[in-house]
Design a protein that fits this description.
This protein is mostly helical and 353 residues long. Helix content is 59%, strand content 1%. The protein has twelve helices and two strands. Strands 1-2 form a two-stranded parallel ribbon. α8 packs across α9. The relative contact order is 0.15. It binds iron/sulfur cluster.
Amino acid sequence: MTEPLRGIPASRNLSPRTRLGWRTLQFAVWFLGAGIFAALLFRPAVGLHAFWDVLIPLAPALFALAPGLWRNVCPLGSTALSSRHAGVSRGRTPSRRTQGRFALVGLALLLGIVPLRHPFFDLSGFATAWILAVLALLSVGAGLLFEWKSGWCSGLCPVHPVEKLYGRKPWFTVPNAHCAPCERCVALCPDSTAGEGKPGVENGRRLAATLLTGGFAGFIWGWFQVPDRTADAGLAHLASAYAWPLGGFLASLLLFLFLRERFPGWRSRLPRLFAAAAIACYYWYRLPALFGFGPFPGDGMLVDLRGTGAAAFVPLSRGFTTAFFAWWILIRPETARPWMIRPPFRVPERPAP
Ligand code: SF4
């Protein structure tokens, strides 16, 4: 891991005014999330568009540009950490081995849940609300048992592996608006440690990081090869909803491992290349799909621009997003910037003997 940039303090307490600003933002984003959840149940068409066609398409870019900002305001993160803020969490620090297991479970949740979008979640507000409720309950349980972010935000959360994959070179560092004081609950805390990928120090976390880095580009490509379920689709659709992304995952992972072995000199560049390929592949398909120009026109559409001559925008958007993320993740020099400034430790560090 690299040293933090000069000008970024090793730790900082929030002033009362800054804390109030962050709390206001956290509540605002939490209520927005609660509003989307209510819309999924009572106005499913609005809720599905707001969640799958606005919030989720913005998320990868936010992870790449400002992962610290996202992690300060994520509504599920705030839900998980509410018990710690209220002083009712048991505050256990998971062992390193448990942290590794959490990382593998988080990855399994990600790979298990995302393929279910085509058969269920993209089509049903109730199904999307149901999976969000299950994840919220899990996050609350993790927050009640474990110290600060060790249980959920840097543990079991299925989105966290993607934050680490894309958030390699954050644009800026923000103060940590949750953990005060820092209890050293995560070994090589991903929020406070500068450097790329943040694979951690434990075998489980390293394995999860390698699997996602190598496989995610193929997983995303495979996901976009499957249409949303139609009324007459049977079990074969569910099988293909898993087969394409998981097949793509495996092919991409094998390629990654082969290149890593064959070209040892590329070891630092290869993860960046695959991370850039994953996010570029996502926007390659997702941005045109928002306007009716996806691989299955009408799936994942926010506004229908078909028949307006707007198809010319498709190559432009693909060229721009691919070039941008290749530059942002692959070409730009490493910033050595952490996502967040660590709050002061509760127990000061012992001076070196
Ligand atoms: S900043 Fe400290 S308390 Fe917060 S997640 Fe990182 S190690 Fe845990």
